[in-house]
Each structure stands twice: as structure tokens, then as C-alpha cells.
Amino acid sequence: MPLFTTTELNSLQDLFVDQIKDLYDAENRLTEAIPKMADAANSSQLKQALLDHLRETQGHVSRLQQVFREINVEPARETCDAMKGLISEGETMVKAKGDPAVKDAAIIAAAQRVEHYEMSGYGSARTFAEQLGLSQAPRLLQQTLDEEKAADEKLNQIAKSSVNRKAAARAV
């Protein structure tokens, strides 16, 4: 969020809507960024994990649209400056020159930063939805949170089982 904002937060509902708009922007940005990361990946396992998560991310966008419907708010994006920054860092890794194994390790690190950001956002939004007594939103947000955690774990598994080993074996 910019330093000087016109956002007005007078209720938990206001905050919840703001957070959902932020997540909606983040997920939409990721649907554009993930294919670039997958194209840049050398490891077929990493490439497949990213493409699988792209499909999930498209589902996250759809779930957020369901949340908007439940709260009777037109789906809208609130610029997610944090995700813009995380994607920019990821693009730096995608465009980097050097050893493909090391580049894969960098792509995983960038992707995991994104996953951790999303996990915190979905966890907070789910808690707000519960407090507001919403009927569908907590379940939808938890489902996405579970998928984000699983994606992070999958990336971690790929890093530990192959990518980081290959990167470590490269000459210094």
C-alpha cells in the first residue's frame, strides 16, 4: 500500500474487503508471472510444480470471486505493492545468467517468498472472515491457504531432493 492512501478502515469489514482486493490483485499478477518462472526453470520437476501451481492460482482467483459475491462486493483489485516487489525479484532470477541448477535454486527461493507472503495474507483474511461470521469465505480462504502451504512444501522438497544438491555441486 502506498504511504499516503485514501483507504478508510473503520470496521473489520472494511479491512477484510481491503485484504481480499489485495489478494485478488496478487493472484492475478501471479497468473502472469508463474508461466515465466516455469519457462525459465531447467529442472523438469520444478517446471511441472510451477505449472501445477499456476492451475491452482487460477482457482484461487475464482475462489476470491466467490468471496466477493458472498460479501456483495464487485471483484476489484487493490494494487498489491508487496507482490509487485516479490514478482520483480523473481523476474531478476528468471533473467539471471549463469548455471541452470543455481538459477533453479534462485527461482525456488523467489517462489517460496511469494508462497510465504500469500500464506500470511490468506491466514489473516480467513481469521477476519471467521470473526465477521461469514459462511463460505472462511472455508474458501482456508482451502487456498492449504494449497499455498502444499505448494511451499513441494518447492521445499524439490529444493532439498535435487535442485540445491545440483547447485551446491557447481564450482565456486
Give the secondary structure arrangement, pairings included.
Blueprint: H1 12-40, H2 44-70, H3 81-95, H4 100-131, H5 137-168
How would you characterize this protein structure?
The protein has 172 residues and is mainly α. The protein is 78% helix and 0% strand. It has 5 helices and no strands. It has helices spanning 12-40, 44-70, 81-95, 100-131, 137-168. The mean pLDDT is 94.
Measured distance between first and last alpha carbons = 40 Å
- Along the chain, the helix and strand elements come as HHHHH
3D shape: elongated
Number of strands: 0
Tell me the radius of gyration. 17 Å
Which percent band covers the strand fraction?
under 5%
Q: How many individual helices?
A: 5
Helix content: over 70%
* Overall pLDDT metric: 94
Structural class determined from secondary elements: mainly alpha
Keywords:
about 170 residues, mainly alpha, 5 helices
Task: Give a quick summary of the entry.
With 172 residues, the protein is an all-alpha fold. The protein has helices spanning 12-40, 44-70, 81-95, 100-131, 137-168. The mean pLDDT is 94.
